[in-house]
Amino acid sequence: MELILWRHADAEDGVPDEARRLTAKGRKQAQKMAAWLAARLPAGCRVIVSPAARTRETAAAFTEQFIIEKALSTAATPQGILKVAGWPDGAGTVLVVGHQPTLGAVAALALTGEAAAWSLKKGAIWWLARDADGVRVKAVMTPGIL
Description:
This protein has 146 residues and is of the alpha/beta class. The protein has 4 helices and 6 strands; from the N terminus they run E-H-E-H-E-H-E-H-E-E. The protein is globular.
C-alpha cells in the first residue's frame, strides 16, 4: 500500500474555520503539487479529503474525483485518518488531503508506531509505502521545491 499525505495549501485566515478558502498563493501551490503528483501517481488512486473548503480546493487542483470524509476534518485523529485510508493493510494508493498538525502525527505514527509532532509545510506531501520489507518514505515534496 502507498499513502500520500497532502497538507492543504496556503489558506486565508478567518472563521468559520471549515469555510476558509485558498489564497492566490495557495492556488498556485496546489497547482504545482497537483502537476507533480499527476506525473507520478498510478491510475486508480483513491483521493479522500477533509470537508473543509481549503482541502477540497487543494484536491480539486489534482482531480474532481475525490471523496469528502468527515473523519479527516480539523478534529481528526491520526489513528482515525489511518483507519479511513486503510493503512497499513489496504491495497493500492490513497491520497489524503488534510490538516496540520494531524497529518504530521499521521506520518510519525505510520513510520514509528507513535504519533508525534512532525510538521508538514503548507501544500507539501509525504509519500509513504508499505511492503513486505516494512514502511519507507518514498518522497517528501514541497511546492517551494517545484
